[in-house]
Amino acid sequence: MNDIESISMKGSGGSKMPHSHSTPAGVDGGSRTPPTTPRKAGKMLAVRVQMLDDTITMFQVQAKALGRVLFDQVCKQLHLLEADYFGLEYQEPNGTKYWLDLEKPVCRQVGLSLIDPILRFCVKFYTPDPAQLEEEFTRYLFCLQIKRDLAQGLLQCNDNTAALMASYIVQAECGDYVIEDYPDHTYLSTYKFVPHQDQELERRIMENHKKHAGQSPAEADLNLLETARRCELYGMKMHPAKDHEGVPLNLAVAHMGIVVFQNFTKINTFSWAKIRKISFKRKRFLIKLHPEGYGYYKDTVEFFFEGRNECKNFWKKCVENHGFFRCSVVKRVVRQKTRVLSRGSSFRYSGKTQKQIVEFVRDNYVKRQTFQR
C-alpha cells in the first residue's frame, strides 16, 4: 500500500456545496420502494458528548451511521446555526486527539469502539475575526472554549492579559461589580481561570471587573474574544514532532497556515500563500513551498512525527483548516471506499467554508429568542 497522500494548496471553486444539515448519507432522505422484508435497524451505539459547559448528553446512533448523523444530532439539540465552526473530538489512550470524521461510519473510527465512548463538542476553526460570528449564541460558545483553553493552560499569555480575559468572563457571568457583594477578591476563588491562579491574579481580575460596569453579557463576550484573538496561542493546539536534525518541536495549524513552536515559543510560520503542497509519507510530514517562499529553507521542509497515525492526523487537520479559511467553495468529493491497494487517503474537507457560513446565516437569518446562559 502506498502510504503517501498530498493536497495542493490553492483556492477551490466548483458547484455550491449543500448545507451541512442537509440529509446525510446513511439517512433515508427520499422516497424509494420499501423492501419486501423489514430490515433490522442495526446495532445502536450510545455516545456521551461533553458540551462546552461541561454537561454530558447521551446520543444514540446506528453504529454504521456516518459521523455526520451524530454531529447533526448535537447541533440540532443546541439549535446551532453556525455549526461548521465546531466539531466532535475524541482522544486515544496515547493522548492523541482526533476529530470525528463526518464522512466515515461511527463504528469505523478508532477510539469509538469502546464500551462507553465519550466525545467533546469543541470549537474546531478559531476565526481570526470574532465579529464575523453572526449569532450571539455562537460567540457565547466560543467564549466557553476560550475559558476552557485558558483554564487548561492551552492559551498561555502574560498575567495582565489573563486577568483582563478573566474579568470579561466574570462580567458576563456575574454582571457589574458591586462592592457590597464583592468586598474583596475572594469572590473569584471559586473560579479556575488559569492553572496557577493566585491571590495577586484575583486582585488584578477584580480591578478589571470594576471597569466593565454597564457591559451586557454579549458585550463582555465580544470583548473577551477580541482580546483572545490577539494572543499568539489563540486556537493553537500543539502536535509534537521533530525536525530533520531530531530537535523536538510542536506544530500547530490555524487560519493563517502552519506554525512551528519550540515548546510554546513561535519560531516560524508557513503561511498558506507560501505553501504549494502538503503531504505525508508514513511518519514524515512534508511542506512543499512556492519558489519565492524558500528563503532560509529548501523547497521542501520535512518534519517527523512519532508514528503514521499522528502524522496523518495532523495532515488532515491542515487540509481542513486550509479548506475552511482559504477556499470560497469546497467541491464535495465522494469518498472512495478503502481498497486493498490504494494510493493513500481520499480525505478532503467536506463542510462549509467560512465564507459560505457567513452567506448562509445572512440568507437564513431568523430572530432568535434570548438563550439561557
UniProtKB/TrEMBL annotation:
The keyword Transport does not apply. The keyword Secreted does not apply. One of its GO terms (cellular component) is rhabdomere. GO terms for molecular function: cytoskeletal protein binding; guanyl-nucleotide exchange factor activity. Residues 1-22 have a biased composition (Low complexity). Residues 1-40 are annotated as: Disordered. SUPFAM superfamilies: PH domain-like, Second domain of FERM, Ubiquitin-like. SMART domains: B41 (SM00295), FA (SM01195), FERM_C (SM01196). GO terms for biological process: animal organ morphogenesis; neuron differentiation. Signal peptide: none annotated. This is Moesin/ezrin/radixin homolog 1.
